[in-house]
């Protein structure tokens, strides 16, 4: 299925378009041709009957306003996929559900405004699990279409892996950027919580909900972050090698043997490249911490859907409905206790990070390679502690399973140090096994 896998560099695409080496209208034509050739199998994009006319018109309008190479914004003419829980003017938000589109309508998200100001073209909405919760959409993994692409940002990850677009927007509450990026063999970046505004995005759990990106490389992720993140300062990205920490304890035991064997190879490669890697006892009470994080998640999910669920309960997939009902069962006192436990967890993690001098935590990006079948999007547990603490995270492609499926290395930085994480990621990327 190699013809389905063809990720392209955002950095190179943007450079060619800004310099005029590739015309905006010609690039849109190539994008539309690639979608026509591949997406009937991958199903990364939400169907849009008028996509061709809309994109051709947008490209023509952008070209008419062409200020010349010296005035081109950073993403001039770049086609971008946007997860279908993010509002885009002119495109309905369905969130992978059967609820009426007008019920879910809202003002355009700030993240889309920033893309458009940077010169990007919205290629379309990408498929999501229903309401970005638990019921997967139809998207297939470009590497092996009978395997899941992960979730809930399935369409965005697959769209980049299949070369439909060089940049796609996703969201992560627990593991919805990192896991699908690992399964699809691309770079997934989840900024520090709140670094990209989430207005105009359907909520799952606001305590955790974070916008992020899928790209082919770490340099591509840095380019996108410079456009999308609040208060981006490249000078914060200091050179030098980070000290890497392995969270030794029950958390790593959640990974499958194949993922742990691959992680050992990744760590060996990094040590051989000169990185200092420290094993640190961590997450000794992982099950208790995870329970508190899920209480917050489900409680907030139920409140976010209170009005819609009361009116349209019969239209929800049973898996989404079950999650909402679990949230209804949580008392306000349970929620308050869970929030306090979360703060204790964050403080413990911060103390361990500082006490052992860790710059980046590293771990498997998922419990293993993409599972066979499309009924489940896989397990998000490997992302849970870092999402729970609101840390910036990144997954880098790093090797293959015995069956030839991609594997990834997850890197978690200190809160607010997104620039440093992305700077270091470029060097880590070159040291990891292909």
From TrEMBL:
It holds the Pfam family Amidase. Residues 135-156 are annotated as: Disordered. It comes from the Bacteria. InterPro entries: Amidase, Amidase_dom, AS_sf. Gene3D superfamilies: Amidase signature (AS) domain (3.90.1300.10). Transmembrane segments: none annotated. Residues 26-422 form the Amidase domain. PANTHER family: AMIDASE DOMAIN-CONTAINING PROTEIN, TRANSAMIDASE. This is Amidase. The lineage of its organism: Bacteria, Bacillati, Actinomycetota, Actinomycetes, Kitasatosporales.
């Amino acid at each position: 299925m190699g013809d389905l896998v063809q990720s392209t560099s955002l950095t190179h695409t943007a450079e060619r378009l800004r310099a005029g080496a590739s015309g905006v209208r010609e690039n849109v034509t190539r994008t539309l041709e690639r979608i026509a050739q591949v997406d009937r199998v991958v199903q990364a994009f939400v169907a849009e009957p008028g996509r061709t006319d809309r994109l051709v018109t947008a490209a023509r309008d952008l070209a008419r306003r062409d200020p010349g190479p010296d005035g081109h914004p950073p993403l001039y003419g770049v086609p971008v996929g946007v997860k279908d829980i993010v509002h885009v003017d002119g495109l309905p938000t369905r969130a992978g559900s059967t609820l009426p589109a007008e019920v879910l309508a809202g003002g355009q998200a700030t993240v889309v405004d920033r893309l458009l100001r940077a010169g990007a073209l919205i290629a379309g909405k990408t498929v999501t699990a229903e309401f970005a919760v638990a019921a997967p959409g139809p998207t297939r993994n470009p590497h092996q279409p009978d395997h899941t692409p992960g979730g809930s940002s399935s369409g965005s990850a697959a769209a980049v892996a299949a070369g439909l677009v060089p940049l796609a927007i996703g969201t992560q509450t627990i593991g919805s950027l990192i896991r699908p990026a690992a399964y699809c063999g691309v770079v997934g970046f989840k900024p520090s919580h709140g670094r990209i505004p989430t207005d105009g995005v359907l909520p799952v759990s606001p305590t955790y909900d974070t916008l992020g990106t899928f790209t082919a490389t770490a340099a591509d992720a840095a380019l996108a972050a410079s456009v999308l993140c609040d208060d981006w300062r490249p000078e914060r990205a200091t050179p030098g090698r980070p000290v890497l920490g392995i969270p030794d304890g029950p958390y790593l035991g959640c990974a499958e043997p194949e993922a742990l064997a691959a992680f050992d190879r990744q760590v060996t490669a990094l040590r051989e490249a000169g990185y200092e890697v420290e094993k640190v006892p961590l997450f000794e009470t992982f099950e208790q911490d995870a329970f508190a994080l899920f209480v917050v998640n489900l409680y907030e999910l139920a409140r976010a859907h209170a009005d819609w669920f009361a009116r349209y309960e019969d239209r929800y997939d049973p898996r989404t409905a079950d999650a909402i009902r679990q949230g209804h069962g949580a008392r306000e006192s349970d929620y308050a206790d869970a929030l306090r436990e979360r703060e204790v967890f964050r403080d413990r993690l911060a103390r361990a990070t500082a006490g052992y001098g860790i710059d980046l935590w590293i771990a498997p990006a998922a419990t293993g390679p993409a599972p066979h079948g499309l009924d489940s999007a896989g397990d998000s547990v490997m992302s849970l502690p870092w999402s729970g603490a609101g840390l910036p995270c990144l997954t880098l492609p790093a090797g293959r399973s015995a069956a030839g499926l991609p594997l990834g290395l997850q890197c978690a930085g200190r809160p607010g140090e997104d620039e440093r994480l992305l700077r270091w990621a470029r060097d880590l990327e070159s040291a990891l096994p292909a």
